Structure formats: C-alpha cells, structure tokens
# Entry
Amino acid sequence: MKKDAGWWNDFFPLARPVFDRISQKNTNDLVRYVVAKLDLKPGRKFLDCPCGIGRIALPLARRGIRATGVDIISSYLDELARKADRRGLKLTLRQSDMRRITFDRQFDAAGNIGASFGYFEKESDNRLTLRKMYQALKPGGKFILHLTNRDWILTNFIAQDWFETGRTKVLQSRTFDYATSTLHTTWRFIADGREIAHDCPIRLYTYHELLTMMRSVGFVDIEGFGSLQDEPISRDQRMMYIIGTRPKRA
# Structure
C-alpha cells in the first residue's frame, strides 16, 4: 500500500500508549450504546472504520457480530489481529485510507467512532469519508458518527496541558483557527530522555454542519445526542453521537 504524507502515518504509532488510558467501563458503555442504537444482533455485519486497535470491533465480535475493521496504521491492525487470534474471535481486517474503501451495500451498520473524523484538509475529503460509509451500508443500514463537539472545545478551551501514560509523558499545545474551524495540536511525547513532537490539525464541526454533510451524501432520519444517556447536543456536552440511516429505497 502506497503511503501518503498524512500526519496520521507517523503520529498514531507514537500515540499508541494513549489508548491505554481509556477505562474498560468507558469502552463497555460505548459498545452497549452502539449495539442498541444500531440494532446490532448476532450474525449482522458491522463496518468499523477506522478501527484502531479494536476497542469496538473486538467486543462486537465477542457478541457474535460479524465485524470488519479498517485502518491505515498497519501496526494497529497487526495488534488487533493478534488479540482476535488469542481470544478465538473472527474479524475481517483491511488496511486502507478512509477515503479509499470500496464496499458496496455490504453492511447492516457502520461506525466512525472515537473522534476519528475531520482529519483531512480538504472539506471534500471529509465529506467523502461519509459518502464511503453510506455506500458501504445495505439499504436501511445505520451509521454512527462519534466525535468531539466543536462548541464544547471552544467553551472549555485549554491552550496547554499534559498527562502521563506508562513511561511516557505527553504534552499538548493547542491553537484554534477560526477561519477554518481547525484545532491545531502539537503533541510532544517524552520517554527515556527523548522527545518527539507531531502537529495534528483536525477540522472540528458543529452539529448543524454535520447534519448538512450527512444529508448531502444521502442519510435520512438523522438523530444527534450529546451523551450515552441521549442528552441533547450542547456546548456542555464534550462528545456528539450522530446516527443516520441509508434509505431502504432510493
């Protein structure tokens, strides 16, 4: 697979320890929510794109759901394959850019989960990721987009902070470009006396912008929530959970 110059190629292998900070309870709660909202039952087919190290795909496979995981980071897919093999779980894995998947009406449900949207500088490329997910769904299939709420970020903006995970100290410095609605974060990973810095620009969206984008690619019956308790989206809710459906008929 040809490697492009995207910032994600070098960033995510370095950022792998960050995922260890996510609690099992947080994951369990999110998986239950996804299963309920997408009406996932054993035997149904789910597309997890991007899948990362399998936070969602593995628990779904354990429930008997036929999960396909797509990610561009080969080390993540290798780790996920090992985990699935150790646990005796069957997963289908593909290495691909989100914009390049070619599935056509194959899945009962799909998800872009874990603030993995808005990576691309061109607005048309971010919209393309939604179009590709739409095309992957069977008629009547449901899609969930789970991402950070722009309004919450601006209300609670923090220019700098840091945390530790294992033996790695992580420093983050942020600026926000109001002209493009892009959050620019410089991540500094410090471990064993070495420091590596990476810049990560992510386009942040409001709920109304995402409604427009999802409708433009064909989704209907779109609902948005600000929490796993289905609270309304507002500047007080950090995350957004947006669910749309591919029509049963064109």
